[in-house]
């Protein structure tokens, strides 16, 4: 009898001892049992290692590295994964018990590389309440998912990493990885590289992932998010420089993001420190098109 394919669940963690066990427990509680759970400790100093070794022992593969950031921890997990499919799960997030079995059923017989993704709920730590008011749609259009990722991310579209189940060949054979030089938006930049390969994509219209946000989450720092997003777009422009149509769209998107985060642009941060009279003169005397140049 043919054995079900191995799934590798990759959980990066950094000083997350209060929540990482939630991520591990929901992984161990999956209805699908041929799993390896890889926890990559990115230099924690809060006793995470001792806690996990004592609580889980050989049930998980625990890897420790000096602090190098989230992208590095995910890439370390990829390198040590043996599974045919990869499930990324950040330490403060959750997946539901049938997620992997349902997604695998949809893509296991597809020839070529495949990606499954699902709906999700949005909550805060310690609160399982669905908060649809802050939640963006995860649904990609069928014909051009790459364009959707490029032009709608963070304004109309959001797909947390743990919504996906990836064919591991995408990372092993095609060299896709998380950019370790990006301060944020490394997930968007990675998904752009994934979808540039034109994989077969399957969406399950069920909330099988719980995206939990903490008060100190990176996404609440608009200045860092702005810088990271613009840097990620620049990297995609370089990677697609031979495709004029994609570069044109990315440049349009770059202008949109600068406008979206205009309140934390360099000139606006300077204006906040100026006298109200100076602010008024700037807004009245400097044409909008000129203002946009300094955004």
From TrEMBL:
Domain Glycosyltransferase 2-like spans what residues? Answer: 8-174
> One GO MF term, please?
hexosyltransferase activity
**What highest taxon heads this organism's lineage?**
Bacteria
What InterPro entries does the entry give?
Answer: Glyco_trans_2-like, Nucleotide-diphossugar_trans
Q: Which organism is it from?
A: Geotalea uraniireducens (strain Rf4)
Ordered alphabetically, the record's keywords are:
Transferase
Mention any Pfam family matching this sequence.
Answer: Glycos_transf_2
- What this protein is called in its record is Glycosyl transferase, family 2
Q: What is the lineage of its organism?
A: Bacteria, Pseudomonadati, Thermodesulfobacteriota, Desulfuromonadia, Geobacterales
